[in-house]
């Protein structure tokens, strides 16, 4: 069994739209400090990654990433331990950002992985000069094919360095612990993002991806559901592969992961294996009822709109002929006369 020290697994990394702005992969960001724009200008068309600093606040259980800036970075692709990061540039940028907003501290760094690299631990140790617990955010700014695989998901993974303590008595090893990440935005930021996306959002809604603040069209909603199902399938495949590796002895047993899997299994409906057909029938019946309600509401809405159209046509015709609009009293008199004629006929 392994355990982690110095970090709680309940830590959450909150990223603001200024740092990460998700738009269709065929377009580029128009914001100066966006990480994808940094990658588009510095490493487009190559396998090189770019590195930058993250600014914000570390409040213990919540790491708030509010801003970022790019940093000159070079590394040898053949030798991952050979890399260069401009320290003086970071110091100068920090002095300038401190004059703008003193509350924003250097809390970590980002890079466009798209996955973890061998030199990440060394870079993380370097950033401990400015932060006691730097956070590393790996951002995937790949091509459209890579992004469509996980459509609807945040293409960013947050990590913090921890010490892995093992039961066999071996010295603790430094490693990265994945923490949940989410995009948060204040009202002013949401308005700014919406104005920014007006010019860059694709006109063809059939090929439109999901925007940062959520799409309103049927295509985007279906795309979100499809992306969620794809993500669920990938995670189930990962869990199955992990259990197979543990059973075959390729990986050591991690009781914390097994406890989490056991908790997931207990959330399933009781007796689901024995009553699969009954559950499917109940779900189908519930879905049919929902579809009937939607059909009736759409039908009623269409009838109401049709009546409004007829009334509007009659009012326009009266206006063209110069006839006065019928008042409520006249309508009531006509209805009384109709009732009298009906009674006389009877």
Summarize the structure.
The chain is an alpha/beta fold. The chain is built from nine helices and eleven strands. The chain has two domains: 2-203, Cytidine Deaminase, domain 2 (3-Layer(aba) Sandwich), CATH 3.40.140; 285-345, no CATH class.
CATH architecture of the largest domain: 3-Layer(aba) Sandwich
Note poorly predicted spans. 22-34, 144-152, 201-215
Classified by CATH, the class of the largest domain is Alpha Beta
CATH H-level homologous superfamily name of the largest domain? Cytidine Deaminase, domain 2
Reported for the largest beta sheet, the result is: 9 strands, mixed
Structural class of the helices, strands and pairings?
alpha/beta
Straight-line N-to-C gap = 92 Å
Radius of gyration: 30 Å
